[in-house]
Design goal:
Elements: E1 10-17, H1 21-32, E2 35-39, E3 43-47, E4 53-58, E5 72-79, H2 83-95, E6 101-104, E7 108-114, E8 120-126, E9 134-135, E10 138-139, H3 148-152, E11 168-175, H4 179-189, E12 193-198, E13 202-206, E14 214-217, E15 233-240, H5 244-256, E16 261-264, E17 267-271, E18 277-281
Parallel strand pairs: 1-4, 5-8, 11-14, 15-18
Antiparallel strand pairs: 1-15, 2-3, 3-4, 5-11, 6-7, 7-8, 9-10, 12-13, 13-14, 16-17, 17-18
């Protein structure tokens, strides 16, 4: 099953603020393998397939370094189409001497790194959904060591040639200020389902029984403030909806729970209780 196309809701594009547009473009091209789709003096849209923007980076006027212990981005996650693609990017990282983290989450195999501004990045592949273990409505996920011996034993001889065209924005993981209000917003307002609880520290939510389209945690502290508007970090992310009817129903639910929805430059933007901005797009 494809968990990143309609009728499922999914994250389409992540929009970041950076300190140096030139430095960030160089990183995302050379290290991550994106291509520039559009470019202005202070902004660039990055793509895997040459048609669809997955990431937008912008250098605000009077930009400030990333603020710690605030709400906002924990990481955005690029989903690769095959395990061979993961093998090739691991070899690419090794060749350029890049240090990165890794984990086996049972549902997926993942690499972790940060861009030059400290914006978190995950690059991962999913195991087949038939292998995911569900119990009482929750999917089993863990943080086990990634088996590089097994991964790199596979006979993949092709060279890394950049981000594969079929890569998508797999999910986004956010720092939030509390989980009670956050859960109400994302479930009763946006209509997602909680599919995993990590104690009282994190929630993982999805549509269509994916292992998660959005992760939410309080690891920067309960009550963490939102960063300044000029701070490096998350500007917004786009939630792709299957229809105008879905969007209208969502806006009605958000209104019922008192969640702010604003119109800005022709876009409809919902704001979660921690100040994270979500562009509602059909």
């Amino acid at each position: 099953m494809n968990f990143h196309r309609k009728p499922i809701m999914f994250v389409g594009q992540v929009n970041l603020k950076v300190q140096s547009i030139e430095r960030s473009i160089a990183f995302y091209e050379r290290v991550i393998g994106f291509k520039v789709l559009e470019r202005t003096e202070r902004q660039a849209k990055l793509t895997a397939d040459g048609k669809t923007a997955l990431l937008s980076i912008e250098q605000p006027i009077d930009v400030e370094p990333k603020q710690s212990r605030t709400t906002g981005l924990y990481h955005f996650a690029i989903l690769l189409p095959t395990r061979s693609d993961l093998i090739k990017i691991v070899r690419h990282f090794a060749e350029i001497g890049l240090q990165f983290g890794s984990s086996d989450h049972l549902v997926s195999e993942a690499l972790y790194l940060s861009d030059p501004d400290g914006n978190g990045i995950e690059i991962y592949i999913d195991r087949d959904a038939s292998e995911w273990k569900w119990a009482n409505g929750e999917v089993a996920m863990t943080v086990d060591p990634l088996n590089f011996t097994d991964l790199l034993s596979k006979g993949v001889n092709d060279l890394w040639k950049g981000m594969p065209e079929d890569a998508v924005m797999g999910h986004i993981h956010l720092h939030v200020s509390n989980l009670v209000d956050t859960e109400e917003f994302y479930t009763k307002g946006l209509g997602f389902e909680v599919v995993n609880r990590y104690g009282n520290q994190a929630l993982f939510i999805s549509d269509g029984k994916y292992h998660h389209h959005i992760g939410l945690n309080t690891w920067n502290g309960v009550g963490a403030p939102k960063p300044s508007a000029q701070s490096v970090g998350l500007e917004s992310f786009t939630l792709m909806l299957p229809s105008e009817e879905t969007k209208n129903e969502m806006m009605n639910r958000l209104e019922r729970i008192g969640a702010p929805v604003i119109e800005e430059n022709g876009a409809t933007i919902a704001v979660d209780p921690s100040g994270n901005r979500i562009i509602l797009s059909v």
